[in-house]
Amino acid sequence: MATIQQFTQSGFPHVLRGMDLLNRQGLNKGTAFTEEERSKLGLHGLLPPHVESLNEQVVRAYEAYKRKDDDLERHIFLRALQDTNEVLFYRLLLDHIEEMTPMVYTPVVAVACQQFSHIYRSPEAYSSPIRCATLSPRSCGIVPIRKST
């Protein structure tokens, strides 16, 4: 995945700025954009004013995760986080891998697939973030649910 610095140093005449940048989940750092980055990339007014480190973001995201009432809500929260800030999503997942793996893989994914029309948030096929982490984004598709034998 290309970084913001690679985009700006690559000589592309159209550097991602503002909402175009924030809408790229692989490049969006959320509140971790520094003051300098916010100025250069036209992000002032689009983010909360406080700059946070990735560690601070993880703490805040984990607190929000813990406030969810059930596994499906936790799954929806994590999917929304993945859709907006992949770096934070994967860091949070790695920091709490044993607790969160069931939320993004089996068994909760089976429930999420059954409830897909009720939790639909974006026009993407349903896929497992764990599987997608090992594949190119184009090869991520619907992950079949297999019955254990």
Number of separate strands: 0
User: Distance between termini?
Assistant: 37 Å
Characterize the overall form. Answer: elongated
Helix content range? 40-55%
The stretches of 5 or more residues where confidence is low (pLDDT under 50) are 131-149
Strand content: under 5%
Radius of gyration: 17 Å
Computed structural class: mainly alpha
Helix segment tally: 10
> What value does the average pLDDT take?
78
Describe the structure.
The protein is an all-alpha fold and 149 residues long. 52% of the residues lie in helices and 0% in strands. It is built from ten helices and no strands. It has helices at residues 4-9, 18-22, 35-40, 54-66, 71-84, 86-95, 97-104, 108-114, 116-119, 129-132. Helix 4 crosses helix 6 and helix 5 (71-84) packs across helix 8. The radius of gyration is 17 Å and the shape is elongated. The termini are far apart. 18% of the residues are buried.
Summarize the structure.
Helix content is 52%, strand content 0%. It is mainly alpha-helical and 149 residues long. The N and C termini lie far apart (37 Å).
What descriptors fit this protein?
single chain; 149 residues; mainly alpha; 10 helices; elongated; disordered C terminus
